[in-house]
Amino acid sequence: MIINHRFSQVNVQKSASFEKFASVFLLERNFCNQRNTIYEIYIKKFKNIRLIILIRQVLSLCVYIFVLEIRYRTPGSYVLQNQFLTLNIFKIMFKKQLVIIFLFLFFISYAQNEFITVWKPNITGTIDNAISFGGTGTNYTISWEEVGYPQHNGILSVTSNTSTFTTISFGTSLHTNPIQATYKVKVSNGNGLFYGFKGSAYMNTTGNPELFEVSQWGDILWLQQFTQGFAYCQNLNVTATDTPNLSQINNVSQMFSNCPSLIGNDSFSNWNTSTITNMNGMFNKAKLFNQNIGNWNTAKVTDFRDMFSSASAFNQNISAWNTSSGTNFISMFQDAVAFNQPLNSWNTSNATNFRYMFSNAKSFNQPLNNWNTSKVVNFDQMFTDASSFNQPIGNWDVSKVGGAYGFMMFNGATLFNQDISAWNISFQNVPSAYVYFGFNNSGLSCINYNKFLIALSNNPTLSNLGSAIGVIEAAGLTYSTPQAIMARAQLVNKGFNINGDAYNASCNSTLATAETVKQAKTPAYPNPTTGVITVESAANENVYLYDITGKLIKNMTLSKGSNRIDLTEYPSGNYLLKGNTVFTKIVKK
Q1: What are the residues facing 201 on neighbouring strands?
Q2: What is the predicted pLDDT for the residue at 54?
Q3: Are both 279 and 342 inside the same structural domain?
C-alpha cells in the first residue's frame, strides 16, 4: 500500500561545507496504526527528491525507517542515491487528534556514507583470495574494489546475517604481485539495514592479519554491541576522519584489544560515548595508541577494567573523565608504562576494586589522596612494581577491604615511602587461611615501617583473623625502635608470619624520642644489668619479656611497687619488657 503526500513548502539553507534541506510537515494520522505501509512523500518544489517512510512492526514497537531518494544531475545523467535519515519525532495533541511532527535535517553528498574497510587477504597455498566478513543485518549491500585497480570490483547483497560470516571472494587480482593486493570493502544499508560487525571470527591465538584499516565509519547506526569488535586484528589501524554512531549501544569492551598496530587519529576525540557502560579492555595491548580522548563522556561507565592495560604508549590527560559510576578499575593501567597523568579529581565514590590498577605502571607518580575509597574491597597488587609511585595515601578509607590479598599492594614499589599507619584496617571478610600484606623490596623506610608495625599490633580488630594467619612480606625492610620491636613481637605471638625484614639499631626516628619518654615512666635499675634488675610497676599486671628479634622469652606477673627480675640465665643483649603500663628497654651485659 502506497500513500502519497505532496508538499510545496521547503526551506533551503546553505553552508560552506554542505547543502542542507529542512522541512516541517504535519500528518493528521496515526502512522503506528498503519504498520507495514509505505508512505511516499514528494516534495513538489524539488521533483528529484522523494522521502519514503517505511513503517515496520518489530516486536511491540512501531519502527519508522526513513529513506531519502535523491536524484541529482551529473554531466549527462541523473544519479540515484538513497540516504537514511535520523528524524526527531514529536507527538502533540491538537483538536483531539494525534499530530505527528517530523522535523528533519539532511544533506546531499556525491557519495553515500558507507562503512569502509581495507583488507589484505592471507593468500597461502591453495587458499582462495577471499575474506570472511562479520557483518550483521538484513538486506544490506556489500561492494568491493581492488585498491589501485577500481575496474576490478564486485557487489553482493546479504539477505540476512545475524550469526554467520559472509565470504567475499575477490577472484583473480590485477596486482603485479597478487600477494600484496588489498581490497576496499564498502557496506551500505541497501534496501534493508546493516547494524553490526562481529569480531568473534578473529578471536584466535594467531590473530587476524587480514583487516588492515577502517577508513570510514559512515552513517551506520550501530545496533549490535562492539564487544571484541576488532579484537586481535594485528595490522588494523583506524584512519577514518568521521566517528561511529554509538548512540544505541552500551558495550565497547575489548573493541580494539590486542590491536598492536592501532594508532588512530584526532577523530577519536570526537567520539560520543555518552551511552557506554562497559569499556573493559577497550585498548588492552593496543601498544601504539595514544590519541586524545580526554573529553569522552564516561558518566555511565561502570567497568574500566583493563582499559589501557599494556597500552604502552598511552599517556593522555583523562583527568576530566566522569568516573562517578565506575565500580571496577581492575588492571586499568597495568603495564601502561608511559602513563603519568593527573587523576586526583576522579570521583571514585562507587569504586569497589582497584586490583592491579597501576601494577607495573612504571612512570606513574600522581597524587591520589582525594580519592574516595570507602567502598573498595580489594587493593591486591595495586602498586606492584610501580617503581615511580610515591604519593601520600595515608588518608584512604580501607575499612571495607577483605580477602586474602586485599593489602598485597606495594611489592616492588621501590620508591614508595609513605606513612600508612592511620589506615582503618578492620579485617573484614577474612578467609580461613592467610591474610597478606605486601612490602617486598618497596621503598618503605624504617621510620614508616616502624609506624606500620606499631599501628597494626594495636589494631583492635586483629581478633577477626580467627584461625587465619597474617603474613607480612617485608623483604629489604628494617625496624629499629623498641616500640616497633615490641609491636612486631606481638604480631608474631598473634600468629603473624613476618618475612624478610631485619632489625637495624642505627635507624633513628622521631618516634624514638617519644619512646624514650615512655621508658622514663617505667623505672628499671640498674640498667644495663649483669643479672638482676628492679622494675617499678604502677599496678598489678602481667608483663612479657622479648629478645631483640621479637621472640617471647618469658611472661610474669608484677605487683604494684618494686619487682626484682633475674636475667642471669639469659645471654647478653637487648630485651624489652612490656605490659599495659610497663614499657622498658633492658640491656643485659
Answers
A1: none
A2: 42
A3: no
